[in-house]
Amino acid sequence: MASKKEVHASSAGEAIVNFFKDFKNYFTDFGKAISNGDAAVKLSTVLMGAGYFARKRIVVGILTTIYEALFVLMCIFYATPNLAKFGTLGTTVRSTSFDPVTMQNTVIPGDNSFLILLNSVIALFMILVFILTWIHNIKRQYELQLMSENGEHINSFAEDVKSLVNGRFNITLMALPTIGVILMNVIPILILIAIAFTNYDQQHMPPSSLFTWVGLTNFKSIINFSSTNSAFGYAFFKVLGWTLVWAFFSTFTCFLGGIVMAKLISYHRVKFPKFWRTLFVITIAVPQFVTLLLVRYFFGDSGIVNSFCSSIGITSALKAIGLVSAHLNYIPFLTNPSWAKFMIIMINIWVGVPYQMLIATGVLLNIPESQIESAKLDGANAWQIFWHITMPYVLFVEGPTLITDFVRNINNFNVIYLLTQDTFVTTNQTLANANAKEVDLLVTWLFRLTNDYYNYKMASVIGIIVFVICAVFSLIAFSKFLSGGREESYQ
Question: 57: phi > 0 → left, psi -120 to 50 → alpha, else beta; which?
């Protein structure tokens, strides 16, 4: 008898095989439609509505022909002018010319590389959509041919429209959201990917100047570890290392802290559990940006925490053991790289544990009592019960949430930026040359490159790398947590 892991591995393999089979069948069916279709189907490769006209579906044929005509007009007046410049992203630079008649400078508009790139990507996407609809149209007309030859009923246009509010209402509902996702997500992502292969930065800023394609040059700069050859390569590995360390500790400290806090508050000897739970929940009610800005001032070099530590001798004690430089009269909570990283994780625990405590409280209340009672009868102590029953159950329920929290912390902009902006200044010249800091995450570095330094090319490369890291981790982690095989243990 096969194990459950083998069954799930087999299912995953079958899913991949089925995907490639469907992909192959999609074009196989298209080939059959072309080769076996009658004259009307073959004519529809040129005139998309021909097959519908032959089956007396006049309205659908007219609409399909109009769609094809609009596509041709789009290619002539929109796609062709932009795609003609897509290879160079423009060659004519905007300039000025002095007009002796008017005694004024006249601006001679040139090419706008960004608009050429944007319009070209949109045009290519529209061409791809047309090709897919063109293939679907031919396959559909071949289906109508077979239905006609078999004497089956072919729906009229009115019946098709009625089906869109009845049997195929899901298509109607999904139409607008799909268009929104394409406009708001797909197109910007394609633009982001394209910019990563250009030299679009502050020195090549349209419309006053042009940018062009540079191939994999930006990616080579990022993956070059040597600080002497590439400041960006040196900074990338520094920032990536801290990003992964931050994501790990910020996720698991809050996760474990929330479980421990929930267990302590629910302990039968703790007095006023509702009061303590409410007290911690108050931190969730306060907007995070308010909390973090206040904490930044509290832990500043001249903040209230430093004043308190200095007055009671903590600063002097830290100097004596070497944790604070002798020339400082304050603790550099947010201005020294090591101190700042430590404090960021500690502050994040304070901000994040209450939220995890609420989730853990709900999960702990649903642990099967029968398992706990059985463990006690078998002589298990509190620690053994927690480690072998409580934690596996919590991980089983919160596993997917833990994965999303890790990915979210990789892109946790608020905590890092609000705590360190205008406070932390790097002394590492190589990092400074790449516009990075020791406390930066990839996402905050990306934001600074675009917002402060207009280095869109490197920001796009970093954005692609962040996406790949998050996607790979999510696929691997979700395949482990959602592989099944543990459900019956908690029924």
Answer: beta
Half-sphere exposure for 176 (CA within 13 Å, toward CB): 3
Q: Which residue reads 């459900």 in tokens?
A: 487
Considering the chain, what is the average pLDDT of its residues? Answer: 84
Task: Tell me the C-alpha distance between 232 and 216, whole Å.
Answer: 14
Asked if 332 contacts 339 with a C-beta cutoff of 8 angstroms, the reply is yes
Helix (H) or strand (E) holding 444: helix 442-451
207: preceding bond cis by omega (within 30 degrees): yes
Tokens of 227: 């600080």
The Cα–Cα gap between 188 and 326 comes to 51
Q: Tell me what pLDDT residue 30 has.
A: 83
> Each residue of 281-314: pLDDT tens digit?
777 777 888 888 888 989 988 889 999 999 999 9
Residue 353 is encoded by which pair of tokens?
Answer: 């544990």
Structure tokens at 265: 């508050």
**What single-letter amino acid sits at 173?**
L
358-374 confidence digits (pLDDT tens):
888 888 878 777 777 88
**CA-closest candidate to residue 370, choices 381, 378, 362:** 378
Please give the structure tokens belonging to residue 200: 């679009």
Is 326 in a helix, a strand, or coil? coil
What's the pLDDT tens digit per position in 443-481?
Answer: 999 999 999 999 999 999 999 999 999 988 888 887 776
Neighbours of 448 (CB within 10 A): 18
Domains for the chain: give ranges and CATH numbers. Answer: 25-215 (no CATH), 231-299+334-490 (1.10.3720.10)
Q: Are 106 and 115 a contacting pair, CB within 8 Å?
A: no
pLDDT tens-digit readout, 311-326:
999 999 999 898 888 8
- Looking at residue 78, the DSSP 8-state letter turns out to be I
* Burial tier of 322 (Cβ tally within 10 Å: 0-12, 13-18, 19+): exposed
Residue 440 structure tokens: 């930066």
Q: Which of 89, 71, 88, 176 is nearest to 133 (CA)?
A: 71
Alpha-carbon torsion (326, 327, 333, 336), positive or negative: negative
Contacts of 328 (CB under 8 A, 6+ apart): 319
